[in-house]
Amino acid sequence: MKIEDTKLTAEVGSIRELNLYLIKGWVLLLTYVRHARDDQSPRFVVGWQSDEEPQLPELLDQWEQREMMRSIDR
């Protein structure tokens, strides 16, 4: 499909999240690296190109992920 057929986009920051979107039928549109101070993180832009309702994977937001990591470190 062409990029012009994209109806909705999302940006994710991990391979795990990317794979969850791809499993649901999203397509990878763009990859880049975000630079912040001394840190670099991969970013992925996915697009929904189907005429059906977009299927969103269940993901934890960044706050939930931090809280889980804190509880593991205790």
Concise structural overview:
This protein is an alpha+beta fold and 74 residues long. The protein is built from 2 helices and 3 strands, in the order βαββα. A hairpin with a 2-residue loop joins strand 2 (27-36) and strand 3.
Topology:
Elements (H helix, E strand, L loop, with lengths): L7 E5 L2 H9 L3 E10 L2 E10 L13 H12 L1
Antiparallel strand pairs: 1-3, 2-3
Q: Can you characterise this structure?
A:
The model has no long low-confidence stretch (mean pLDDT 87). A three-stranded antiparallel β-sheet has the order 1-3-2, covered by helices on one side. A hairpin with a 2-residue loop joins strand 2 and strand 3. The protein is flat, with a radius of gyration of 15 Å. The longest helix is centred in the C-terminal third of the chain and has 12 residues, at 62-73. It is 28% helix and 34% strand. It is of the alpha+beta class. It starts with 7 loop residues before the first strand and ends with a helix. The chain has helices at residues 15-23, 62-73; strands at 8-12, 27-36, 39-48. It is built from two helices and three strands; from the N terminus they run βαββα.
